[in-house]
Prior knowledge:
The complex is a heterodimer.
Chain A: H1 2-29, H2 34-39, H3 45-55, H4 61-74, E1 76-78, E2 85-87, H5 102-137, H6 142-156, H7 159-173, H8 189-223, H9 226-233, H10 238-269, H11 271-276, H12 282-291, H13 295-323
Antiparallel strand pairs in A: 1-2
Helix pairs in contact in A: 1-13, 5-6, 5-8, 5-10, 6-8, 7-8, 8-10, 9-10, 10-13, 12-13
Chain B: H1 8-14, E1 44-49, H2 64-73, E2 78-81, E3 88-91, E4 99-101, E5 106-110, H3 125-134, H4 146-150, E6 169-173, E7 176-180, H5 188-191, E8 220-226, E9 230-235, E10 253-258, H6 262-271, E11 279-281, H7 287-294, E12 303-316, H8 324-333, H9 336-343, E13 349-351, H10 377-386, E14 393-399, H11 402-416, E15 421-427, H12 432-436, E16 445-451, H13 461-465, H14 469-472, H15 486-497, H16 501-517, E17 521-532, E18 537-538, E19 541-543, E20 548-550, E21 555-556
Parallel strand pairs in B: 1-10, 1-11, 14-15, 14-16
Antiparallel strand pairs in B: 2-3, 4-5, 5-7, 6-7, 8-9, 9-10, 12-16, 12-17, 13-17, 18-21, 19-20
Helix pairs in contact in B: 8-10, 9-11, 15-16
Amino acid sequence: MFRYLIRRLLAAAVIMLVITTITFFIFFALPSDPALLACGKTCSPSRLAEIKHSLGLDRSYLTQYWEFLKGLFAGRVFGDQSVRIHCGAPCLGVSFQTDTPVLTTLLSDFPADLSLGLGAAVAFLVLGVGLGTVAAVRRGRAADKAAVGVALFGVSVQIYFIGLLLLYLFVDKFQILPASGYTPITEDPAGWFQGLILPWTTLVIVYLAMYTRLTRSSMLEVFAEDYMRTARAKGLPAATVVLKHGLRAAITPIITIFGMDVGSLIGGSAVITESVFGINGIGKLAVDSVQNSDLPVILGTTLFAATFVVIANVVVDLVYGLVDPRVRLA
Amino acid sequence: MTRRTRRSRTVALAATAVVIALGATACGGSSSDSGSGTPGKGGTLTVLNKADFDHLDPQRVYTTEGQSMDQEILRTLTGWDESGSKPKLVGDLATDTGTPSKGATVWTFHLRHGVKYQDGTEVTAQDVKYGVERGFSSDINGGPPYAAQWLVGGSDYKGPYQGKQLDSIRTPDRYTIVFHLKQPVADFNETTTMTGWSAVPKAHDTGSTYDTKVWSDGPYMIKSYTKNKELVLTRNTYWSQATDPIRQQNVDGIDVKFGQDESAIDQQIKADAGTAQTSIQQWPIAGSDLAQLAGDPSLKSRYYKIPAPGINYLAINTTRVKDIHVREAIEYAIDKTTVRGAFGGSAYGDYATTMLSPGIGGYRKFNLYSANPAGNLAKAKELMKQAGNPKPTMSIAVENTPTEEHFADAVKTSLEHIGIHVNISPIDASNYFSTINNTKNQYDLTWGDWIADWPNASTVLPTLFDGRLIKKNPQSNQDLSYLNDPKVNALIDKAATMTDVAQRNATYGQMDEQILKDAAVVPLMYMNFSDMSGSKVGGVISDTILAEPSLVHVYIKH
Lengths: 330, 558
């Protein structure tokens, strides 16, 4: 188990290195020039050169990449003119746009994504698996059709549509909920909860569908197994058959998907939800950074998101071992 | 989206296709203190913006949103008093609008006594000098180029951080500042209304991180500022109404929230519930919401339609489309009614026939081409005949947004009538201007828009049509027509040396006409921008200089 974990973590480190390298070099292959963007209108070639220098973009790509990697472990100091910006290890660089260390920004944005992602994930997992189970048990009946219908609706609508509709109804029209936005839980727990109700609902509507369908089909498959018939034949209560024998076996593929979803949601993939509800999270940061050709932030957000997906995968593997005794980690 | 690219004043505004309805004044400031409730002190104004400012650092900011917010925090040498029917140039930090000498190559400003920073110390001429100087540093980038262009020694100066000063800015005493310019600049005192010409105390300069730590000498100071999240302003208790001819200090504080979806902001302010009642937006209303909101009579008292000193145009590359008859034919052929439809219809703005918009010094009304905005195909075909009926294929560069692609379709349809085949090149919107301003990327037709930095032709025509600048700034060329007409260049040089305003304006009018005679550009629309506020927000002035709702007199109705 321990050796397995070490192996996985080493593999994860290699994956991260590959991702950073690719992101880094793709950026320089793009036509946009951050120095030119910073320079402003009627930018003279000499001024452009100075700005390139102050952003460190006048050095070779390899040197820049090496500095970046070094900064991850040793930290860096930026700026030699107006101000020195200290960026301690693990240093992801300093934003071209805001002159703030990237990690500082990521960490300040992270609680929003964590709240949004985890809260929504718990809700759509419980509801999705529940609905899927009901649909499987009541296969072909009204409950099944209703559950599948709900799922179909969810998978068909778009986040920006649902989000704006919910905002219109609950905030603007009936004024049940306060205007959206993220309030840190440490400041005002009630405000935190109220502000997240609509974003959570939006994500649940969209993600629920997949979990319902997946659970339903996975359960139906398991129901056809011989041991299920045996369980029923030996007179176990229906609930035990369905939940203990059925669901436990059916849930493995769902855990895989769930792990990936949670990892990417926390890592900032809920970008449309973030932007509709005015939650300044990592997803928005990533999109903005691409638009502003802000390389350090692009790298930082990519690395951050990748970290969570990789961690989620390791966790999923560990959970497998707990749920399914047939899986041995070695 | 924060498209604060580089001709930022343009881009930030152009980011959203603005569609406006409601008939209103074509130009001049229009005060909108309407609605019930009495002006009073207190309360907090909430500003809902979809994105953070490009900068608040006065020497770096170059978007209208940022410049407008800076008016609450800091003061410039001169400024615009827009409480009347027309913007009026007044002294802000300075006692008056400055004194030119030596043929407007030397400008002297005397500072008011008793203007104080947020720590109670007095603003000095040395602080203004230092503020202007720091803009020369490559760390303090992004701002307008005027200081570097005009101040003697400006092209070689690298900023104050290595201990060097710029000798062409003199401060004979604490309250006098003198600028020595390379060339006569008759409207230099309008340049000094821009935030770059403000005071920064050396002791509080934090270099490239100054954005979040701007040291206030205006009515409000920064209480907290988390980039991309929230800016909270609170009263600067040392600010005194007696020294400030432009601003008031009515509300207790201003809370700017960034990062909400623009439609969500529009909906919230329209619904006018809770804090939305005391909220206002700085980014223009989203294109998709505009037609509906502009036509809603219940919003009239809190809807601000602001004519911008700007132009939406199509540049014809004169080095690629060499035959003047073909260019003239394009002028006649383009159906501006369908073009305007793409941008949102009559609400977007009036049809333009000149590059200078009404309200800009130097504007003269004329129309060299079709009297009917739908074009004159017969005339256009006749001109194509004179050109020998070529059947050219032309490229057109536009942003890859639905609005602009519809616009490109409209142009394509128009030109197909006269045998010109058009290939549309949509360019990533956030990199649009940095792409087309690079002389490596040339198109036959290029869409552009431009908002004057101050309402004078000097910030429009010389920048957009001085062909001698193309080689000088190959990566940031603004002359999208690649026009290099000796007649236009001569007029630019002539106007630059003129100090008589009336004569100078006449020269700019002539220049505008010469550019249109060259058929270098098709002026499309004079632009408007629209914003809304909640019902409890009063004292909003339509700032026609920045095309923003000005907050300098804002109050909360009780």
